[in-house]
Hints:
Elements: H1 10-26, H2 39-74, E1 76-92, E2 95-104, E3 112-119, E4 133-138, E5 146-148
Antiparallel strand pairs: 1-2, 1-4, 2-3, 4-5
Amino acid sequence: MRSVINWSVMPVFGLLIVGFIIAGFLVSDDAKTDDGYPLDIFFWAMGGFFALIIGSLVLYSNLTNRKRALIEKTWYDAPAEILEVSETGTYINNQPRLKFLLHVRSPVHPPCDVVHKQVIPLTLLAHFSMGNTVNVKVNPENPEDILLV
């Protein structure tokens, strides 16, 4: 699943970052925080912190989307029969991470059984029951490296 950035909220964060930086210049030099630290340094640090976090999120999203696009472009499509499904006990954003035992029939590798863990949206759980056949992407270099699509 690709990451999507809501660019409509970026101006709000941009204003927040610029506001902290401007506040750092406008506050008097002898103004202190409750802890006794210079207030201008605090404002600049908060502006930098927000800029770093937002920049990191945008960079992470961009890199994961590029990786997913590379997988979709270079890995092979293959059918896989679900032999076993179990819960791992892990939930990411209230979506379960499931453990699958799959029998993969790759066009470039001999058929093999692969254990794979992946987060599955709750709305798609019915598609991933035992006995069903699902489409996977198979790494051309390693037949056990797959991605459910």
